[in-house]
Amino acid sequence: MYQAARVRAGAGAEVLLLDQYCPEAAHGRVARHAGAGDATPDHEQIGRLCRELLERRPHGGPTTVSLPPTAHLPRPSTWFAWHAHRIHPGMRVLDLACGQGRHSIAAALLGAQVTGIDRDEARLAAARELATAQGASVEWQVVDLAGPWPELGNFDAVLVFNYLDRARMADIRGLVAPGGLLIMESFLAGQRELGWGPTSEDHLLRPGELARLVAPFRVEHGREVLEPVDAERWRAVASVLARRA
Question: Are 106 and 73 in contact (CB under 8 A)?
């Protein structure tokens, strides 16, 4: 049902791969086409693994995980790192709800023309400092994503990490240019059992839900996974890379 897998983003890190789906091998959880498959078995698996991690700590201490150094720039998601080769110089990239800009800056350092938007001015100020320190050029915009969005145009790639608003999915898909990519990742409901992160149903994905939310885009690669954040914390996330026709 799952397998240990080395993360390309850094030697030593491991993930528990609960489901990985792609055109070549669609699994039962989130199939290549939205609406296919039965999510229940893997959902039970992620809950069991979360409980095992929590039960293990009092007896054996913190879970030991070897992670690569973070340097000055917060490490991007492993999902971004796996697909960073798809970001090319000159591409127009939007980082939606960019926070402190870890993905915006990473994309800019790959040569993309990046716009990062977030409602938190303090986080954007921190992002500007990080970008300057890294020599990265990013256009930062303060946007309250809960209100009306400004005209942003279309982008070759739209990045959406740790932001979930089901009611705005049509707007998000509309930001992707024809032939462009939507790279998205957010927490699964199993995150509640890990003791940190979002707890509201509004901000947690149900098993198999993400592929349906990005439809009718074609899912090229996706996963539902339990992976380490640091030496003591794990996260349960669903990730997808989907292309607009």
Answer: yes
Looking at the chain, list the stretches that DSSP marks H as alpha helix, in order from N- to C-terminal side: 40-60, 78-83, 102-109, 121-134, 169-174, 209-214
3-state class (DSSP) for residue 136: coil
Report all structural domains of the chain as residue ranges with CATH numbers, in order of start. Answer: 3-67+74-243 (3.40.50.150)
Backbone angles phi, psi at 207, to 5 degrees: -55, 130
Whole-number Å distance between alpha carbons of 86 and 99: 22
pTM of the entire structure? 0.75
Q: Cβ contacts of residue 154 below 8 Å, gap of 6+?
A: 92, 175, 176, 177, 180
Nearest 10 degrees: CA dihedral of 35, 161, 46, 66?
150
The tokens 């003591």 sit on which residue? 232
CA distance 62 to 93: 38
H/E stretch holding 142 reads: strand 138-142
DSSP string for 2-18: -EEEE-TTSTT-EEEEE
pLDDT, tens digit (0-9, with 9 covering 90-100), for 45-93? 556 666 655 555 544 444 444 444 444 678 899 999 999 999 999 999 9
CB proximity list for 56: less than 8 A, separation 6 or greater: 63
CA dihedral over 168, 173, 175, 181, signed as positive or negative: positive
